[in-house]
Amino acid sequence: xxxxxxxxxxxxxxxxxxxxxxxxxxxxxxxxxxxxxxxxxxxxxxxxxxxxxxxxxxxxxxxxxxxxxxxxxxxxxxxxxxxxxxxxxxxxxxxxxxxxxxxxxxxxxxxxxxxxxxxxxxxxxxxxxxxxxxxxxxxxxxxxxxxxxxxxxxxxxxxxxxxxxxxxxxxxx
Amino acid sequence: xxxxxxxxxxxxxxxxxxxxxxxxxxxxxxxxxxxxxxxxxxxxxxxxxxxxxxxxxxxxxxxxxxxxxxxxxxxxxxxxxxxxxxxxxxxxxxxxxxxxxxxxxxxxxxxxxxxxxxxxxxxxxxxxxxxxxxxxxxxxxxxxxxxxxxxxxxxxxxxxxxxxxxxxxxxxxxxxxxxxxxxxxxxxxxxxxxxxxxxxxxxxxxxxxxxxxxxxxxxxxxxxxxxxxxxxxxxxxxxxxxxxxxxxxxxxxxxxxxxxxxxxxxxxxxxxxxxxxxxxxxxxxxxxxxxxxxxxxxxxxxxxxxxxxxxxxxxxxxxxxxxxxxxxxxxxxxxxxxxxxxxxxxxxxxxxxxxxxxxxxxxxxxxxxxxxxxxxxxxxxxxxxxxxxxxxxxxxxxxxxxxxxxxxxxxxxxxxx
Lengths: 173, 417
Known about the structure:
Chain A has 173 residues and is an alpha+beta fold. Chain A has helices at 3-14, 38-47, 109-120, 161-166; strands at 19-25, 28-33, 55-63, 71-79, 84-92. In chain A, strands 1-2-5-4-3 form a five-stranded mixed sheet.
């Protein structure tokens, strides 16, 4: 039995209905996981003796405007003992109610989730250290969202700050 | 806490200072302990890194990194460029090893398109990626030693790095921002002078390595500054997502070149150097070992360099050679279409990891059927490695913090992206 199938079987046995969909593209396996089950699935993947996904490579989010659900959060896992990669993908309808934090499963997750919140605005439940990492602390909006203007903006100076600010395109929530 | 204004000196409370700093760090004893802001303009932070350090005397109680000073929105900008044009932005993230960044991005694009580079292009990519590992490690060794007051190592390392930068210029026309790897192959084939130049490097470099070893390996000052400093256990290192020399210094055998081979790395015979103690000295030994292994890989790749074209035979991805533009109408059409519109990539997403000198750099790429990437994300090894710095530095002296930063080998351009 291939390891891809083993993962699916293990999750289905322990957490039925956690997997919404399985996708294979270019030799990479993606499991779409229900948002409220992601924490339990990650715990299982890390702690199960046969799976041991002990290395969290990355967490990153996708904005799929105009599709719905709009946001997706990806977890790139790797099992150092078994040399196997796996991607979990969680669809998020409301960015203020994102997935639970993985900070107590993999220590690095808190840091990666902070980046996702700063740039994409997906709020991870239970992560107490969400703050501006790259952007200035008083920044409005999340720049990697698709409705965030890319540039071509008029430069504001102190004498015309308000006039230009009023006609500037704003991100829509 | 005191901040100097134009004419008055203003007292800030610890709470105000913390709010201004934006690191969210817990301060354990605001009355007794000293808060030190280290950076952003500090040479041993290797860029524009600021560390908020809570000190009890000279001992670090807590610290938090404050980043973002170099944030240029690379990921957002790439969404507005075609797949080929977005390539040049990847050089500028990790400016010490642009080849690895190019490679991660290009391999992701090729994976999304479902094409594979020719054997000759793959071998050339391996040679250049390994040369960049050596040149990047030379900068790391030089600056790391300079931070710990070993001045001469720095001068020797930069002498050898200069030779490598000349080779890059010979190949790609640029010393640093090369953008030589292109979707489907390379910009052009190697010049004739390339092989003798690299052979010459392989001849003289082992003796230079012996010089660096003589200067540092058993140097008592170096040993006292690095042994037992900044220790991180293997279990913690994995949980904190460390990669590269920082992970292997703790004895965890994870190297992307072995774990998920790309560009034909499975055909080369090389070892993965491992440390045991997880301290600054172990990470130093691992990176020195990696330079020796890179020499082995380059030699094998040069000996077995395949002949043949460097670009795939797909004119919908690779622009036609200039020689055809004079007499072929189709070539002219493809030339203009590729440089103005670019090529369409299918819908879907891929994730490609590459072992850069600093660790695992990965590129997540989502295509939406158009000629521009819908989403690009880079997993920067420096960004992830920096997160565990508080773990390593707690309880150490503030002078050791400089050694720990150096041993993590961070590049701030890639952290902030």
